[in-house]
Amino acid sequence: MTDSRMNPEAPPTPDHVTIYAKDYEPPKWWVRHVDLDCDLSADKARIRATLNVEKNGSHDRPLVLAGDGLKPLTVQVDGADAQWTLEGDNLLIELSGEAHEIATTVEFDPSANSQLMGLYASGGLLCTQCESEGFRRITFHPDRPDVLSTYSVTMHADAKAYPILLANGNKVSEGIGEDGRHWARWEDPFPKPSYLFAMVAGDLSANSGAFTTMSGREVELNIWVREKDLPLTHHALQALKDSMKWDEEVYGREYDLDLFNIVAVDDFNFGAMENKGLNIFNSRYVLADSETATDQDFDAIAGVVAHEYFHNWSGNRVTCRDWFQLSLKEGFTVFRDQCFSQDHNSEAVKRIEDVRLLRAIQFPEDSGPLAHPVRPDSYIEISNFYTATVYNKGAELIRMMRTILGEKDFRKGSDLYFERHDGQAVTCEDFVKAMEDASGKDLAQFRLWYSQAGTPTVRAHVDASGSGAVLKLQQDIPDTPGQKDKQPMAIPLKMALLSRQSGAELVEERTVMLGEAEQTVTFEDIAEADPILSINRDFSAPIILESDRDDEELAALARVDGNAFARYEALQELNLRALLPVIRGETVMDASKVIAAFDATLSDERLDDAFKAEAIMIPSEAMIGEKLATIDPDKVHAARQALGHEVGKGLTEKLEQMYGRERPAGDDLSVAAKGQRALSNQLLGLIASGDPAKGARLAKAQYDGARNMTERQGALTVLVSLDGAERGAALEDFYNRFKDQGLVLDKWFGLQARAERDDTMDAVEKLAEHPDFTLKNPNRLRALLVNFASNQWVFHHASGRGYDLLARMVIEADKLNPQVAARLVPPLGRWRRYTDARAKLMRAALQRIEQADGLSKDVFEQVSKSLG
Ligand code: ARG
Ligand code: ZN
């Protein structure tokens, strides 16, 4: 075979080409039905595919079937051997008629598939991951989301090694073959894009249940795992039932097949995948009991189960026309899973968590070299666009539409969307249009949220004089790569004007639509002369708010605002006001206002523990860094440590008294119990900040007496950053206790990588050589490296050792798994924001990666864009 890359005369390799949204064209050929015959074993899969293709419109273009690393063994058209050519990895077949039957055979080795895309082996199982473009690693196919087909799949495998054979839809027949083999045939009656194809073969056991749908149909539910893991599946099964019920109640959406399967696998590039009727999950989002999983893990499992289940409508029944529309399904589905979790927990606290995540991950993305709109205009590798912007900012867009339309019209809009587009592959525009048509509201300007990248800054100022008040608003959208001079956006701001004393709403809560670059809103007849502005309540828009409210006003909001999110915001702002001047070298730390505000919050009996736990969290170093034009990680760290120390000292008595309260039962997963544990762990952290020796003693006692993983991990999180014998003892105990449980061992790696210590850099280098560390398992890789790279002060070690290590790991990991390797690059891409010496070292690390041999297009895209 000739390789164009070897020949300097040849055109540039087709690998690193940019795909543009504006170039979209409908498919030249439809595929109406796919029949697969799969002969499976660990190191050999033989796939015979029969595609019923049909010409779309009139043209004389050949059929182009995408492949990735495949060689055709046979190609037949309508039963006869056919002429074909390979263009790069793609198979071209000239066809004479309007409709044909195309049959191809390929063979490959699943055990050699380290990319974990397509069909691969994981812990004795064979499983698939096809989104976005993995199906072409299994068979030749157009493999684009606007080509929808029904599927029938026959799987053959050794009956002992692979007693369970699963694919999408319903099992229609099965039987015994020769030589100890057996087979099963599955049919999926719903036309679907190839990215939703799935099959699994393995020695699996099911925790089974049933759900009766709103129309009275009985659905069989199975959570498939290795037999020994069965006791860990109850929470996931319950979450699935809760999700099915919730989607009926809140969106009127009923499940459509008679069977819903979830399979847990240990090696998985992402969280989970919504394949029709056969979801495949990273085992970390399935397996849990209170000994091995924290309350957060439990909540994350429920959230991901809900997310994948909700995709059955928002993603599967109505799918994406092309990958630029990814947020159509992901933004909407994240919004849906967020609301599900809000309904099953404390609503305000879930909102706070989601906003914290948005600020920690999406805001930096939006202000860096990889910034892109929620609906991107171009990509080199689509896998790089499964981002916080597409997912989480995308969810914020849906939430804003709900705010603008109101709940009732929003539901009308979603009903119309599902009704209009069921069975279709559509665009973000189609979604907005349905919302518009159902509500009669004009969303023309709102659409800019899909096309303009960058986080808007909104400045808000209130002038109160006499009996009225004027709210002045200004907005500013920053330039981002490839986008300058942006238009003002439509920004829904939930606001109220409050009495300083009582918090009473002098101007009732309303949503102000900011649409101009500058705008004023007038309020008449206000009973008090000096009201306080409460704005962007519930984080109604994903913006950066700048206000000139003084510390007293913020302290008052923190105490009296009726909107819990706004109270949290006021506390965050007070923290930042204590931190930023110290970091800039303008003053020494004055923690008095934070101390007073935390004190008042902790004493407020109307507030629940989960809220208090969030409220007394000092903003992370990453979040503080976002507020600085140039980041000096040493200064950020020192200031944050100082604030923690002052707060811990200043509130010792109260912290210890509250920390000493009786704890809920170890396996109590009620909202109240989870809140109590979350608060208790935060209190412990602050106590340790004030008095490390005492913190270490208390944490060790909590560790030794831990009755569940939330207590154990909470204690260890505090201990790992402290000195003293307790630390080593607890880490060793944790390792010995859990060394055979992969998901828990991930925590052991992660906790150490997050430790705020000056020897963490050494520790991480050592852990990268630890016999239990491997780049082959994405969970293990992320446990060490993602945690390490987000540990600001450690990763940005002045020596550049952190950057070196990460660069080395990216180059190594890229040889195995480009998708996962590419996800490690963004922390280095932030170089423009750091002080000169570090910026240089970060760039050098990126350049080293760029020069590595045989770089994947995944890493190439991230690195080249990061260097800019
Ligand atoms: N659709 C999956 C989910 O969000 C994620 C798939 C990720 N795949 C990828 N190639 N990035 O539920
Ligand atoms: Zn999703």
Fold blueprint:
Elements: E1 19-20, E2 29-41, E3 44-55, E4 63-65, E5 74-77, E6 80-81, E7 85-87, E8 90-93, E9 99-108, E10 118-122, E11 125-129, E12 149-158, E13 164-167, E14 170-176, E15 181-192, E16 199-202, E17 205-212, E18 218-225, H1 234-251, E19 259-265, E20 272-273, E21 278-282, H2 295-310, E22 319-320, H3 326-344, H4 347-366, E23 378-379, H5 388-405, H6 407-421, E24 425-426, H7 428-439, H8 448-451, E25 457-465, E26 468-476, E27 491-498, E28 505-514, E29 518-523, E30 532-535, E31 544-547, H9 551-560, H10 564-583, H11 592-603, H12 609-615, H13 621-626, H14 633-650, H15 652-659, H16 671-690, H17 692-704, H18 709-719, H19 725-738, H20 742-754, H21 760-767, H22 778-790, H23 792-795, H24 801-816, H25 818-822, H26 826-829, H27 836-850, H28 857-867
Parallel strand pairs: 2-12, 18-19, 19-21, 22-24, 25-31
Antiparallel strand pairs: 1-23, 2-3, 3-9, 4-8, 5-6, 5-9, 7-8, 10-11, 11-16, 12-15, 13-16, 14-15, 17-18, 20-21, 25-26, 26-29, 27-28, 27-30
Helix pairs in contact: 1-2, 2-3, 3-4, 3-5, 4-5, 5-6, 6-7, 9-10, 9-11, 10-11, 10-14, 12-16, 14-16, 15-16, 16-17, 16-18, 17-18, 19-20, 20-21, 20-22, 24-27, 27-28
This protein binds arginine and zinc ion (ZN).
Domain Peptidase M1 alanyl aminopeptidase C-terminal: 551-867
Organism: Sphingomicrobium sediminis
Domain Peptidase M1 membrane alanine aminopeptidase: 236-446
